[in-house]
Amino acid sequence: MTLIAALDGSNLDNDFVMRIIKCPSFNSDTVDSTILHNKLFVNKPEVSDILNEKGIKAYLKIDIGQYDNGTMIVPDLYDTSLKLSTYDVIGPKARSIVHNVLDIPMLIKQQLTWAAFAHRANKIPIVELEILNDAENKAELELQLSHSLYLMVQDFKGQLILKLSLPTSNTVYEELIDLDQVTRIVALSGGKSRQVACNLLSTMKGADASFSRALIEDLNNNMSDDILNIGLENNIAEILKASNKNKYVQSIT
Q1: Quick check: pTM over 0.90?
Q2: With b meaning 16 or more CB within 10 Å and e meaning fewer, what string describes 93-120?
Q3: 163/59 Cα distance (integer angstroms)
Q4: HSE-up of residue 149 (Cα within 13 Å, Cβ side)
Q5: Alpha-carbon distance 17 to 47, whole Å?
Q6: Counting beta carbons within 10 angstroms of the beta carbon of residue 129, is it exposed (0 to 12), middle (13 to 18) or buried (19 or more)?
Q7: Is residue 217 classed exposed, middle or buried when 0-12, 13-18 and 19+ CB atoms within 10 A define those classes?
Q8: Which of 188, 108, 191 is nearest to 154 (CA)?
Q9: Among 44, 133, 198, 214, which residue's CB has the most CB atoms within a 10 Å radius?
Q10: Distance between CA 182 and CA 57 in Å, rounded?
Q11: What is the β-pairing status of strands 160-165 and 126-131?
């Protein structure tokens, strides 16, 4: 079991991200792909060669922010097409935020429009629909999001990855796994600590991890190469252990 490393935060220093990617523990045995910010490809173009040597795929973050209703600010179509064709990436990642039940169909429709654009470019998109940790009706939003995704994704012509918040109920997204269009469901840590995120992941049926904060927690650019690598190795091992527990739980229920 491997994870999608989310290293696309706009506040992450390019040099720090490159050091993480260069760590021996950041390898295809534990990390199958990573999400990266455009600025890394611009400032550190050698990243593609390093990832290729390691056998790790890359996704490009294309979202540039969200409006108050959670829809993503639409990036320039030509510029996005150019980036997807220029950079050595397997697909784009776009993020929306779910604030209320009524907006869910609109958010999914926008996401699937961009997913179709990626599919026409022979890319596999990551569709990210985040429900914030402090949402008062989080469980209700999760249930409605799962139901709406199940209905709407069935009409999508292509394949995609769903990136969703760690849910209140560990089975709420279970039916999405069986959709032919969904190649994978990955959970985002959503700012949770690694311990909390891993505890939730370990009981979440059918999902892998695509963590950011939880992945690099306790790591910083002032560490020596050896200490950074050991810390990253331990973090990845903890996340993968939780994911493997997840698979075990799924197999016996």
Answers
A1: yes
A2: bbbbbbbeeebbeebbebbbebbebbbe
A3: 13
A4: 28
A5: 10
A6: buried
A7: middle
A8: 108
A9: 214
A10: 18
A11: parallel
Output phi, psi for 60, to 5 deg. -105, 125
| Residues tagged active-site | 128, 163
Return the residue matching tokens 């429709």.
Answer: 109
**Token pair for residue 177?**
């796994």
Task: Map tokens 């220029």 to a residue.
Answer: 86
Q: In whole angstroms, give the CA distance from residue 130 to residue 127.
A: 10
Sheet-wide strand order for 31-36: 3-7, 31-36, 57-61, 91-98, 126-131, 160-165, 182-188, 208-209
Question: In this predicted model, what pLDDT tens digit does every residue of 77-127 receive, in sequence order?
Answer: 999 999 999 999 999 999 999 999 999 999 999 999 999 999 999 999 999
Q: What is the tens place of the pLDDT at every residue in 44-59?
A: 999 999 999 999 999 9
Place of tokens 């993020």: 95
- Tokens (6 digits) for 36: 């990266």
Tokens for 113? 């429009």
Please report where in the chains the tokens 């999608």 appear, as a residue: 4
DSSP notation for 84-106: HHHS--SEEEEEEEE--GGGHHH
Residue 221's SS3 state is: coil
Q: Going by C-beta distance under 8 Å and a sequence separation of 6 or more, which residues neighbour residue 201?
A: 166, 187, 207, 209, 239, 242, 243, 246
| C-alpha span between 97 and 114 (Å, rounded) | 15
